[in-house]
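Morning, I've got a small favour to ask if you have a moment. I'm working through a protein record and want to make sense of it properly. The fold is given in discrete form, as structure tokens running alongside the sequence. Can you walk me through what the tokens say about the fold? Thanks so much in advance, here it is:
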Amino acid sequence: MKNAGSLNGGLDNTSGDAFDAAASWHSLFEDGEPDAATRERFEAWVSADPQNRVAYESIERSWAGLASAAVDDRILKMRREALSAPQKKRLKSLRPFRFAASILVVAVAAIILIHQGSLTTNLDTGIYATQMGERSTITLPDGSTVELNTASRVHVEFDAQVRRVQLLAGQAWFEVAKNQPRPFLVEAGDRVVTAHGTAFDVRIEDHDRVQVTLIEGRVSVENNTKMGAGPAVPEHEDLLPGDQLIVTAAKPAVMRKTDVARATSWREGQIIFDDDTLESAVAEVNRYSPKKIILDPQLAKWRMSGVFIAGRSDSFVQTVTGHFPIKVTQDGEGQLLLTAAD
């Protein structure tokens, strides 16, 4: 059990970000039951600022979600170590691995920073949209719910025959009300997803890449006759829970089993990588923040795993540059340039 004195300077509200202090407190309590003096200091810290309590509760919810979502034990272990160790000690202990092409990197704290933003709506057209860094939930007239990820847009159109939602941009999670007489359809690109009382995730990129992930129940994915069929796109696919279908123009469709917790981690404000290329990781981080990361193509194929906070480009960059031989500079537009260290 660490003693309270070992954390001096890291737990005072005036010494840094409330979330960093909350992460330190959470790590301390994970080591065992705190003594009376430590508990008293914690209560004083929580009472000093309402943001401290919010930060600590966010850390607790996030950790509980990760533990229950069957996230790789290596990631949980590394994250625990990252939380409990001072930054200099972490970097020193990992320095022998700095030149490896693949390394497990973990953010300082997996907390929920992507906020529930104000939903942009146009009731006349049935358009619902979120801005970059926002997430919002819509309750549809039939009781179904749609949760929009960052920079996403849908068009909802219900009539006497069908419940129809068009995903125009971004990503959405659907939980469809059961026992309804009208079919529930989601149109994305040149695909139509028919739900059968279920929960699923749909993502569209560059207007021609559609990804459908089934969480529970059953869905059918078919060609959208209004859009026309791509040359290598199947006419019909049935998905079972855990299946993920990826359809890209002019390429064969891919059906695979996937980690549902990872695919839907955005709903908890998190991004989870598992042996992903640095190129794809940077692209994913850039979805959530206006401060963009520009990656040197020489670094594109390096591989990494970890749990990160959606919307915090600076935190991601700090972690990556602390574990890879990478330097960061900032251009005149505020973009973060990542290049190989000399």
Q: What stands out?
A: Residues 50-68 form the longest helix (19 residues). The chain is about 25% helix and 35% strand. The radius of gyration is 22 Å.
